[in-house]
Amino acid sequence: MGIFPFSLTIPDYLNQLSKKAVLMQYAKISGTGSYLPANRVSNDDLAKKVDTSDEWITTRTGIKFRHIADDSEKTSDLAAESACRALADADLQADDIDLIIVATATPDMQFPSTATIVQQKLGIANGCPAFDVQAVCAGFMYAMTTANAYIKSGMAKNALVIGAETFSRIVDWNDRTTCVLFGDGAGAVVLSASDEPGIIHGKLKADGNYLNLLNVPGQIANGQICGSPYISMDGPGVFKFAVKMLSKIADDVIEEAGYTTDQIDWLVPHQANKRIIDSTAKHLGLSMDKVILTVQDHGNTSAASIPLALDVGIKNGQIKRGQNLLLEGIGGGFAWGAVLVKY
């Protein structure tokens, strides 16, 4: 049989080839942006409110500061500001966006989605799909992987992927074991269809058997909040599971992509705890000189932490075009994921 199927006309054959070419597109990072609320809270500030100290927090987490949203700032406000900066970085207009995905565990309201609110705030009137994903601290990995599938299938050309959180609103500020860990912020990435490599490989995992290790059990029912509205966490249990699963999924993604650890220029991990980051880097054989680290300045911003760290690494000149980045994160559920991307 020849290379040309004679059952098709030449125009039909060329059209099929064109469709296949679309399916083979890469999703490339064309712009990044981030936003942090103005209120910067130090460990010493927290020590005035709960029984803790800068030394206690820093030794156990690596965190020195976190940003807390003003009462008037909603998750969508943080998300929209980071999105504007990412659009400017990509040299795109808001209406060039044909997909919006917001990763958040702290939405503005029960519904509609924060993504549709961001769409309205950006003035995007083209009717593009907009929705939220909720995988807590792994949310940005889930959102980025979903946007990649849209672009590779030809269903989107310019996707706005945002991680945004106001975790300060679900923290018990009298609980020193959790209130010292979290902060607010947002990070955004524009993924654009490209013939050049961008996202190379991604993998997502989840295991609901561990849901009691990290959760916010409260829910709205009959006009009331039933159950605690605050974060509940088994710190040692989370640490043990996170180190094990982040190391494994990093290995899997690198191997399945046909790469080696030596080809990874930067690790951009979820910024939850410096000890978890140290352990993952050590497992991969990466020096900390190849790790983007922002946990000391941001605290754990959940779904916002990876895009925030990515934007910091790019804007300060550490991350350069053509370099290979390994992004990874894990969140309550548990849900976790990793993405290998050429920037």
UniProtKB/TrEMBL annotation:
<comment type="subunit">
    <text>Homodimer.</text>
</comment>
<keyword id="KW-0511">Multifunctional enzyme</keyword>
<keyword id="KW-0012">Acyltransferase</keyword>
<dbReference type="Pfam" id="PF08541">
    <property type="entry name" value="ACP_syn_III_C"/>
</dbReference>
<keyword id="KW-0443">Lipid metabolism</keyword>
<dbReference type="GO" id="GO:0006633">
    <property type="term" value="P:fatty acid biosynthetic process"/>
</dbReference>
<dbReference type="GO" id="GO:0033818">
    <property type="term" value="F:beta-ketoacyl-acyl-carrier-protein synthase III activity"/>
</dbReference>
<feature type="domain" description="Beta-ketoacyl-[acyl-carrier-protein] synthase III C-terminal">
    <location>
        <begin position="255"/>
        <end position="343"/>
    </location>
</feature>
<dbReference type="InterPro" id="IPR016039">
    <property type="entry name" value="Thiolase-like"/>
</dbReference>
<feature type="active site">
    <location>
        <position position="137"/>
    </location>
</feature>
<keyword id="KW-0808">Transferase</keyword>
<keyword id="KW-0275">Fatty acid biosynthesis</keyword>
<comment type="function">
    <text>Catalyzes the condensation reaction of fatty acid synthesis by the addition to an acyl acceptor of two carbons from malonyl-ACP. Catalyzes the first condensation reaction which initiates fatty acid synthesis and may therefore play a role in governing the total rate of fatty acid production. Possesses both acetoacetyl-ACP synthase and acetyl transacylase activities. Its substrate specificity determines the biosynthesis of branched-chain and/or straight-chain of fatty acids.</text>
</comment>
<dbReference type="InterPro" id="IPR004655">
    <property type="entry name" value="FabH"/>
</dbReference>
<feature type="domain" description="Beta-ketoacyl-[acyl-carrier-protein] synthase III N-terminal">
    <location>
        <begin position="131"/>
        <end position="208"/>
    </location>
</feature>
<dbReference type="InterPro" id="IPR013751">
    <property type="entry name" value="ACP_syn_III_N"/>
</dbReference>
<keyword id="KW-0444">Lipid biosynthesis</keyword>
<protein>
    <recommendedName>
        <fullName>Beta-ketoacyl-[acyl-carrier-protein] synthase III</fullName>
        <ecNumber>2.3.1.180</ecNumber>
    </recommendedName>
</protein>
<comment type="similarity">
    <text>Belongs to the thiolase-like superfamily. FabH family.</text>
</comment>
<feature type="active site">
    <location>
        <position position="300"/>
    </location>
</feature>
<dbReference type="InterPro" id="IPR013747">
    <property type="entry name" value="ACP_syn_III_C"/>
</dbReference>
<feature type="active site">
    <location>
        <position position="270"/>
    </location>
</feature>
<keyword id="KW-0963">Cytoplasm</keyword>
<dbReference type="GO" id="GO:0005737">
    <property type="term" value="C:cytoplasm"/>
</dbReference>
<dbReference type="Pfam" id="PF08545">
    <property type="entry name" value="ACP_syn_III"/>
</dbReference>
<keyword id="KW-0276">Fatty acid metabolism</keyword>
<feature type="region of interest" description="ACP-binding">
    <location>
        <begin position="271"/>
        <end position="275"/>
    </location>
</feature>
<dbReference type="GO" id="GO:0004315">
    <property type="term" value="F:3-oxoacyl-[acyl-carrier-protein] synthase activity"/>
</dbReference>
<comment type="pathway">
    <text>Lipid metabolism; fatty acid biosynthesis.</text>
</comment>
